[in-house]
């Protein structure tokens, strides 16, 4: 097992940094600051993130995904939002129905161009959180229910397995994944449980290994799909939220962290970190819906 140190790539500036990924077309790093509702972008320069810009949503932003038309798809508070290439922001319909005190949390685009996003209770834990899948046509289905806090989502290199974090249950589970209908009869299988800290975001590298952020654990842990611990990245921040491989060669592990809930901290909590681990990531799939003319706008126009 190797221990890799991470180094700050920004100052400690983000209350709840999350959802980091690499936009290969724009050659930009994308991420969100959840509570501030900011969708952020930055360029890579000399091992730092520079030229950082943001779009303000006016509500929470749990995750960002890339779209096939070059825009961005966002998990906003209770609905999806799009940011087109020209910067226009559009909000879709509420996805959470009668449930109050809940918001959308982490999300990811699947290999077929659909968006998966889970929920998080804003008040007391309910055990009623769900993992949803939204197609390019706006159709919504539930892939998993009875969760305590839906978090990181990632896929194996061949797209045949989905990995999903339930933070409060302290589990990372797997399930088969296909282009067609989801097999609800197949059980989700925990492959990681009783971790030393709470699992948060995760990514999968080109070798099929899992990198899991440790909220409260100042680290990212690399595990085999069987659960075996392989490597650790140490981070000078208590609350590590999300890892992703960035850069033209997808060879740099980028890590978001958070200041949320901390008092009088002396580390670099709230910074984004980079680490060199000797492995590479995989390109991000892209949402097949339109951000220039989102499906909800099209429906409204024909109503």
Topology:
Layout: E1 2-5, E2 7-8, E3 17-23, E4 28-33, E5 38-45, E6 48-56, E7 63-66, E8 72-75, E9 79-83, E10 89-94, E11 102-109, E12 115-121, E13 129-134, E14 140-147, E15 150-155, E16 161-166, E17 171-176, E18 189-193, E19 198-204, E20 210-215, E21 219-223, E22 229-234, E23 239-246, E24 252-258, E25 273-275, H1 295-301
Write a compact overview of the structure shown.
This protein is mainly beta.
List keywords for this structure.
303 residues; mainly beta; Neuraminidase; five-stranded mixed β-sheet; four-stranded antiparallel β-sheet; globular
Structural write-up:
The protein is mainly β and 303 residues long. It has one domain: TolB, C-terminal domain (Neuraminidase), CATH 2.120.10.30. Helices cover 2% and strands 49% of the residues. The chain is built from one helix and 25 strands. The protein has one helix spanning 295-301, and strands at residues 2-5, 7-8, 17-23, 28-33, 38-45, 48-56, 63-66, 72-75, 79-83, 89-94, 102-109, 115-121, 129-134, 140-147, 150-155, 161-166, 171-176, 189-193, 198-204, 210-215, 219-223, 229-234, 239-246, 252-258, 273-275. The chain has a five-stranded mixed beta sheet with strand order 1-22-21-20-19, with no helix packed on it. It is globular and about 55 Å long. The model has no long low-confidence stretch (mean pLDDT 97).
The CA-CA distance between the termini, in Å, is: 59 Å
Helical percent range? under 10%
Name the average pLDDT.
97
- The number of E-state strands comes to 25
Strand order of the largest sheet: 1-22-21-20-19
Strand content bin: over 45%
At CATH level 3, the topology is: Neuraminidase
SSE run? EEEEEEEEEEEEEEEEEEEEEEEEEH
Radius of gyration: 18 Å
CATH class: Mainly Beta
| Distinct helical segment count | 1
Class from helix and strand fractions: mainly beta
Superfamily at the CATH H level?
A: TolB, C-terminal domain
Biggest β-sheet: count, sense, barrel? 5 strands, mixed
Tell me the overall shape: globular
pLDDT below 50 for ≥5 consecutive residues: which ranges? none
